[in-house]
Amino acid sequence: MQDTQLAADLVIGILGASIKHRCRRSQAGNLTWTRRPHTAMQGAFAEHQAMLQKLSAKGRRRVEVVQVRTPEELRRCDGLIIPGGESTTIALLARLSGMMEPLREFVGAKPVWGTCAGAILLAQAVSNPKRGGQELLHGVSVEITRNGWGSQVESFEAPLEVSGLRNAEVPFTGVFIRAPVIAELIEAAHDSQQQPIKVLSRISRSLLPSSLPDGGGDVSAAQTVVALRQGRHLLTTFHPELTDDDRFHEYFVQECVIPSLASRRNG
Known about the structure:
The protein has helices spanning about 45-55, 70-75, 85-95, 100-105, 115-120, 245-265; strands at about 10-15, 20-25, 30-35, 65, 80, 110-115, 125, 140-145, 155-160, 170-175, 180-185, 195-200, 225-230, 235.
């Protein structure tokens, strides 16, 4: 990992939707999920905040976490996390609050990490949008399938091998809740300045749902991808914040946010 040292603290913003997943572990050790209403633009703020504060407590760098509801709050941020929830709800609330265009501008200049629903918003295209379409930020060159693993009762956990993480030999627990599935990695045109896609993690083909167009047969390589990076942006189809493992948050800060901040300051 890069260990760029900058004098200033980092400001990481978190954007979300009005529906939040609550994760509990039963006495048997199994995870269960419920959904509860929250105020608009809150999302999974507390879980991501706890992970970022955990990094700060390690003493490497103090990270200020900002709950982003306005363009002014967004402008303060060095990086942004778009967490899970309902992608269409997040987009609608962003549009109603005048945030959609500022978000697109942010994506064009600074690092963004999309998890689950956030991954849908960050995508270039959606293969199964809701009626009326789906507003997207077009930050990562993938086509994605909403709710690819089915309903919330079909949520599951799986150990993942993830390249680039600290102690990469230790599996990361992927928590998949109504998770999207990447349908296609979109190739860049020959004259494009688009950054290459770096696949960080794949899931076993045996865990892919049979409801996918290629499920149970000739599974495309893209459908097994559950974490990737393109330039300064990070995309995960699962919920790293619903574990006790802060390595994905560390990766986003160390590999995406800090180099981007250093580049902007030196440029």
